[in-house]
Amino acid sequence: MAASAASQSGFIRHSTIEGIESYDAFTHSKISGWLVAVAAPTAMIDAPAHKAVIYATVAILFSILAALAVAYIFGRRLTLATNIAGAAAMSLGRGQKPSPLKQNIFEFDKHYQALINAGDLLDLERDARIDAEEERSRLLKSETDARINAEDQNVAKDQFLAMLGHELRNPLAAISGAITLLKINSTDRAKFEKCVAIIDRQNRHLSYIVDDLLDVSRLLAGKIQLETKVMNIADQVRRCVEGIRSTERAVGYRINMDAESVWVDADPVRLEQVLNNLISNAIKFSAMGSTVDITVRAQGAQAIVTVRDQGTGIAADLLQRIFEPFFQGPPAANRMHAGLGIGLALVKQLLALHGGSVDVESAGPGQGSSFTFKLPAVAAPSGSQTLPDASPSFAKRTLVYVEDNDDIRLAMVELLSELGYRVVGVSLGADAHAAVILNKPHVVIVDIGLPDISGYEVARILRSDPTTLSIPIIAVTGYGRTLDKDLARSAGFDAHLVKPVDVFILTKTIDALLERKHA
Predict the structure, then answer these.
(1) Which of 318, 271, 315 is nearest to 296 (CA)?
(2) Strand, helix or coil at 29?
(3) How far is residue 457 from each of residues 58, 427, 448, 454, 468, measured CA to CA in Å?
């Protein structure tokens, strides 16, 4: 056993003879066969080890404490970040956008930025929702306004149609009664003249109605063109007033005029239409014996014309609508006024075409009304502005009248013959050229809507023949648009008149064309 143990190397612990605990390190030498051992006290060996263990333990404890401190600090930051994120999420839930914040924690900053982005999206969604709600409100209001406007227009349309029927039936009834009376007894000269006067008056009234309706339609479509000239508006007002005074409308009314000279560049026909509407309205809505005052003044660079009456007046809520087409206020309790509600609309639109305007004032029902319109004033032209009224005297004139409507043709042939003309009636356009060659007329009057060839073609045929080239041609037609006038001019017509034609306007046109031809 001893030899076996001595043949090994290793360490053992034992007590020396002195009683000191030692560690022995031994080995067996192969060369000498000796057993060599070295002993060291255990205290010498264990002390450094114990010290190392203590240091290691202290180091481990310190590391644990440091780790705990780091974990605590990070945990606090993480808890704070988590609380901030929770608060931000709650803000989003209340529809509020989180405030920008950076914790320098990658994951937290990334998720917090996601919350901010979500807030941006919520803001966009909220703005879009607000815009959509506002748009919905606007559309609802627009739809409501459109529905109310449509209802008002429908009521206005019904009122207009009822009034139109009334306005058309009244003159037709008067004409029908006068014609019946003529059939029963046409020998009584006084009754004959009375019936003719009724028919003439009511025929003019029907013409005014049709002209106003057509003018409103053309105005709304923007198809009216002005033929302006420089004129003294005071003279125009004076002529219009004198014309109205001579009619039955003005019987029992006083029309006072105070006008100073003011020059304007205007269409005389349209300006007369404006004045006639305003003055006629003032008479229509005033009691018998009332006074209508008309003033004309220059104010700066404008001509100011005022028509003031003592009539039924206008309620405050109607003042803004009085110029709307087909609009009429309620009639006065003691009268049923006539009209289609288009006269004042025409006044406003015609003045606007001239660069002018119109306003109305009234203190209320029963307080009268005052209409004032303004036009740009221009410098007075030099030289005399008086135009000769007399037409040159011609020998007995021959006319060729081309009209397919038998009643119109026969009536106009008879009427023009009574006025001293020699008139040849033709019913077809194809026969017009031969009739002109045969009769050598001074003027040819042609309807446009003929059944075989149009009046335009008749004019072209006459203009293409050297023997008829210089004869003046007048178009008398129911087509009165600006386009129709241009077509007539292009076809070779010298003048364009719209049916029904006042025979005196026709004769003046004939005189003017012949005067120009012989000038």
Answers:
(1) 271
(2) coil
(3) 127, 15, 9, 5, 14
Count of CB atoms situated within 10 Å of the CB of 401: 26
Q: Is 238 left (phi over 0), alpha (psi -120 to 50) or beta?
A: alpha
The per-residue DSSP string of 87-121 comes to: HHHHHHHTT-PPPP---S-HHHHHHHHHHHHHHHH
Beta bridge partners of 27: 36
CA angle 15, 16, 17 (to 5 degrees): 125
Q: Which two tokens stand for residue 66?
A: 């440091």
265 within 8 A of 224, measured Cβ to Cβ: no
Inter-residue contact 378 to 265 (CB < 8 Å): yes
What single-letter DSSP state applies at residue 499? Answer: S
- 146, amino acid identity: A
Task: Judge contact between 455 and 479, C-beta under 8 A.
Answer: no
Residues 302/375, Cβ–Cβ less than 8 Å? yes
Helix (H) / strand (E) containing 289: none
Is-above-0.70 flag for pTM? no
Cβ atoms of 96 and 115 closer than 8 Å = no
CA distance 473 to 398: 13
Element (H, E) at 210: helix 189-220
Neighbours of 22 (CB within 10 A): 18
| Closest C-alpha to 477, from 453, 450, 513, 504 | 450
**Distance (Å, whole) CA 265 – CA 378:** 7
Please report the pLDDT score of residue 388 as a whole number: 37
Residue 479 has pLDDT above 80, yes or no: no
Q: Kindly report, residue by residue over 116-172, the tens digit of the pLDDT.
A: 677 677 777 777 888 888 888 888 888 888 888 777 777 766 666 666 665 677 677
Lowest mean pLDDT among 71-80, 121-130, 276-285: 71-80
The mean pLDDT value for 105-112 works out to 61
CB 456 within 8 A of CB 488: yes
pLDDT digits (tens, 9 = 90+) for 319-354: 888 887 766 665 544 444 455 567 788 888 889 989
Task: Enumerate the β-bridge partners of residue 370.
Answer: 308, 361
What six digits make up the tokens of 234? 């005071």
**What's the gap between Cα 186 and its chain centre?**
57
The pLDDT tens digits of the residues spanning 50-74 come to 788 888 888 888 888 888 888 777 7
